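Case study.
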Amino acid sequence: MNPIAAYIKENRKAAGLTQAEFAMRSGLGLRFVRDLEQGKTTVRLDKVNTALAMFDMEAVPGRKGASE
Amino acid sequence: MNPIAAYIKENRKAAGLTQAEFAMRSGLGLRFVRDLEQGKTTVRLDKVNTALAMFDMEAVPGRKGASE
DNA sequence: GAAAAATATACCCGAAAGGGACTATTTCAA
DNA sequence: TTGAAATAGTCCCTTTCGGGTATATTTTTC
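After joint prediction, the assembly is written out as follows.
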C-alpha cells in the first residue's frame, strides 16, 4: 500500500466518514476515492491533492520507504 | 510552483542533467518531464513517482504549505 | 552580440483515467 | 446468525493525459 492511499484511508475512517461521504464532501467521485484507497497507481495528482486537502495535506517528495 | 515540481527541477539541475537526459534515464517522455516541472497538476501519480524515484524519493502526504 | 543549447508552446492522435450505475462481496452490529 | 451498511468489482461512455513532432522563446556560452 502506498503512503498516500494508506493516509487517506486511515484518516477518513478516523474522521468517521464513509467513502461515499468523503467523496461527496471532497467533490471527488466515489469510484475515484475507492481506486485511490486501494492503491491505484495511475490516479491523477490533482485529484490526489484534492483528497489530501481534506486534511490540510498535499503530496510532497519524501524519502522512499521512510516510516513504513 | 508545487513542491514536487520544484523538487524535480532543482535536483535534476543539481545532478547536471537536462530535461532530455533526465527523461531518457528515467524512461519518461520529454514532454512529461517538462509538464511536470512546469507544475502541471493533472499528471499521473505513477509517472510522478517514477521521476521522484530517480532521487530515491516518492510522493507522500505532507502538511500543506510547510517549507515554502 | 551572435550562435547554440535548453526550455517552453502548439497540434494531433491513441490509450486510458474518471465517473455513473449496477451487482457482488465483505464488514459489523444487534 | 442475519440483515443492513460499507466496500469492492464490472461495464460503458466521455474526457483528457501522454507523447511524438515541429516551432517559438528563453537561457547560456563563447
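Observations recorded in class. The two ends of chain B are 10 Å apart (CA to CA). Chain B has one domain: 3-53. We will return to this complex in the next lecture.
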